[in-house]
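Here is one chain, start to finish.
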Amino acid sequence: MDACRQLLITGLAALNLAIDDDKINRLLRFIKLIEKWNKAYNLTAIRDREAMVSLHLLDILAILPYVEGQRVIDIGTGAGLPGIPLAICLLETEFTLLDSNAKKTRFVQQAAVELKLKNVSVCHSRVEQFHPEQAFDSVITRAFAGLPEMLGLTAHLLNKQGILLAMKGQKPGAELEQMAVKKSVIPISVPGIDAERCLVRIESLVEAEVE
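Its structure:
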């Protein structure tokens, strides 16, 4: 894992993120857990460890400065992405990781235990069927659907000041035009990844009045 460690440390420096050694160790252990469970659970199509560092760690940690609130839910977490890497780095923030795939939520639950993440809860459910007792400050997702659909499926999970953070590739101009909500697009640069990345931040879930 020496090459992976160096790749991660170099990438974090490029992102201007100060992450301590304990968290770096946990991030690398997470990659090893994915690699181990991948053989039986088919968690991700990415098999190469160094590619995992770029695509499963740095790609996610690039949005770290934009995560807001005390209670955050990761919708369609899959193998714990982006929830687990964010939870490792934001230990004071409560994360709920939700997915409808039972095999993947079993892996995520085990990963949270092995990584000693007391700030992570795992939920096996479809998003439209999940009704928490307390609403969330932020919904984060690696864009499991188009933005209008995503907004419709997750709005009930957010409190009145809540925000939706959607990780996307190219700027989804057409999708954004369909939504009369307060929104912004944050360009994201990920070390070692040439592909375009952006973070869509929807700040208000109350539809704007038609003038």
